[in-house]
Amino acid sequence: xxxxxxxxxxxxxxxxxxxxxxxxxxxxxxxxxxxxxxxxxxxxxxxxxxxxxxxxxxxxxxxxxxxxxxxxxxxxxxxxxxxxxxxxxxxxxxxxxxxxxxxxxxxxxxxxxxxxxxxxxxxxxxxxxxxxxxxxxxxxxxxxxxxxxxxxxxxxxxxxxxxxxxxxxxxxxxxxxxxxxxxxxxxxxxxxxxxxxxxxxxxxxxxxxxxxxxxxxxxxxxxxxxxxxxxxxxxxxxxxxxxxxxxxxxxxxxxxxxxxxxx
Length: 263
Description:
Layout: E1 2-3, H1 27-34, E2 46-47, H2 71-86, H3 88-98, H4 103-119, H5 128-142, H6 145-163, H7 168-183, H8 193-204, H9 209-222, H10 239-242, H11 248-260
Antiparallel strand pairs: 1-2
């Protein structure tokens, strides 16, 4: 018996799930699947053999912080998480029109983890730089995909600046710059940055949270008229598919700020 994969031998946009194929092995087939090929994407066949278990030590989390209480910060954290969880289905439906239909699930997965730890009093709520660092590490683990990595970069960079003495708006701006640097997206590329950047810029300019929320909403609305996406799954689609549909990541950001201004 031989096993080929698991591997992306055939992929497609919007494809969900996986495929398993079995075949009766003959000498001719065995010779064929084991023969060397020049195609880099072909996964070599592996002869099935008894597994040898390996006991690996459990790795400790990279971010360790002493839990602390802060009702005000806890309210902000819960509001952000609850908003993303409640928006899961709608964001997925929106992303199904312009991406692979999982934006809502991706953000909700991260939100559920953070909300659970907040409810269990496991977060350093009274040490904001540590809270952002822990959040970045959790999101990188739980969210997965490029979104998880980019959000981890955002929160980790912001945490570093906050620890060095920057005010929160300036720290968030530095996190945004790092996200743009590593992710490659800029304002106008039809991503969550189109809502996040104007909101953070408003905070840096000393404007209120309500004004920042309005800026985020305007940025989110503007993505519906952007005819070409230059990053993410939407970049595969033409303007006819994107016209009139807001970017789901930008919508998520706008909803978070809208919820926060009510606190």
